[in-house]
Design goal:
260 residues; alpha+beta; four-stranded antiparallel sheet; two-stranded antiparallel ribbon; 31% helix
Length: 260
Amino acid sequence: MEAALKKTTVEWLRDKVDAVGFAPVDRFENAPEKHHPSRICKDARTVIVFGCTVPEGMLRSPDYSLYLLHRSYHSVYQYLDGVGLALSTRIESEGNYLAVPVPSFAPLVYHGREPWGMLSLKHAAVLAGLGAFGRSGFVFHPRYGGLLRLGAVVTSAPLPGDSLDDIDRDPCPPKCHACRDACPSHAFDQNGKFNKLVCLAHTIKHAIYPLALKSEDAIKHLERVTNTAGYNYWIDCHTCLSVCPINRLSSRRLPSAREG
């Protein structure tokens, strides 16, 4: 029954996403308690992770690359949320299962001033066999590199997990430091460790933030502002994406979910 449901789920997603993977919940034993799949879906058994690519062409646009990246990201976030919602209702219609779509971006949960997703989609993608973390903090898919945007569904259906054996644990080319050397925000320390908050402070902008968060008292409402007025943020940098050799068309391989 569960194997058949996984098969029909993959078939249903085939012409909707570029990649899909399945991770049993027991792979999330190291997830923070409040961001564990079991906090999202009652009796959670499986996390289904899926992704769509954004086109490399916008990174090479002579004049409008940041504008195009901004719009592509926010378009694909809404699309992935729609896929997750439709998939969840489909799974629940197949049997006595629960399913919950995980937002591809907001709402975010703040720990201090650090934004977290309800579930780390990057870690979920790794645990579902879709890729591995690179030096820039991106998860790199074997074919699509860091151009894959992610969504997920957590379900009580006990679906078979995908293998983790075929994923290169170190996807970056040997001795490649293109992202670190080109980073305008200096988000990498002298040991090459990536600092997410340094990157976000440089890259993520919104016109309302300087007005809504200009006092310490207002910052207490950071989560609310981000999840309402700050949802459609501006992207002010894509240097790491554009210089990464893995994100070049010439480096891609393996068939996509759409290709079978």
